Amino acid sequence: MDLLAVHDYNAPLFDWLPCAADHDHVFHHHAPSPDVPDSSEVLNTPPSPNLSSISSSSNEATATVSNNVEQHSGKPPNIEQAEEEGGNGVRDEQDQDKTDKQVKPKKKKQKKQREARFAFMTKSEIDHLDDGYKWRKYGQKAVKNSPYPRSYYRCTSAACGVKKRVERSSEDPSIVVTTYEGTHTHPCPASSRATFAFLPHPPPTAASFASPHFLLPPHHQPSPFSSTTNYINTTSFAHLGHDPLSRDHGLLQDIIVPTNLRKEEKDSM
DNA sequence: CGAGTTTGACCGGCGC
DNA sequence: GCGCCGGTCAAACTCG
């Protein structure tokens, strides 16, 4: 399972970001989702079925990846939203009814299609790592089996529907688990001092995370974190699967963790 | 005053 | 069908 999951992440995943294209280190970002039913607004035209091989066996493991990709098929949330807001009148009307309980129309009937997600762990004391984008917090929830809450952020850029979740590992409170979901539809507003400044311009996206380059050890890059920040030892990663690169260097800046994997991790506890 | 955060409530999906 | 839980909304609040 773990192996599978990790495998997923070493495999090129999706073309998350348009701007990922000018990424020098672009690893292969072809978006997978061979079976992505075409949608009107798919940003990442997914030509290459890379996942097919992966997704054959483990539903769980692939769920997050391929599934997400598939889910992409629907339409990005922002689009959905746009649509919804296109039906602004609807919303307004509903607003008038809102005194009831049906406060909002929310998502329409259609099964909610989720954007591809990508989680990674960072050892940091800071919860909300600045990745160069501007995020607005729109929710926070207590996490089951964890004393730490999970925060929900959305990219503040108007048309950008990218979301991210930030939570602390209940196991190791010093580890922050960040899950990105969606594709930025705009350039990174700030990249210099950002947490991910060590990354080539395009800030963290699933694609960039998926890229092995993202796994460069700390000494290869200026640490965006405070001096108190530690790095997760590769052993952790080894436990997740493997990564020759990181193994070589012994340390790892961030650990890329498939969301499903984390789930499985939990399950196995 | 606008932008961002907090927080309680709502909703939908999923497992039992 | 029911309850649990994750995700989202939006009003109220805070801060610059």
Automatic annotation (TrEMBL):
Q: Which domain of life is it from?
A: Eukaryota
Classification via PROSITE patterns: WRKY
GO CC term, one of those recorded: nucleus
Region spans: Disordered: 30-115
What are the Basic and acidic residues biased-composition ranges?
90-103
Q: Which Pfam families match?
A: WRKY (PF03106)
The alphabetized UniProt keywords are:
DNA-binding, Nucleus, Transcription, Transcription regulation
- Where's the WRKY domain? 124-189
Which InterPro entries does the UniProt entry name for this protein? WRKY_dom (IPR003657), WRKY_dom_sf (IPR036576), WRKY_plant (IPR044810)
- Compartments, as annotated in UniProt: Nucleus
Q: Spans of biased composition, class Polar residues? A: 60-71
Composition skew (Basic residues), residue ranges? 104-114
Q: Drop me one GO molecular function for this one.
A: sequence-specific DNA binding
Q: Where is the composition biased (Low complexity)?
A: 50-59
Q: What is this protein called?
A: WRKY transcription factor 48
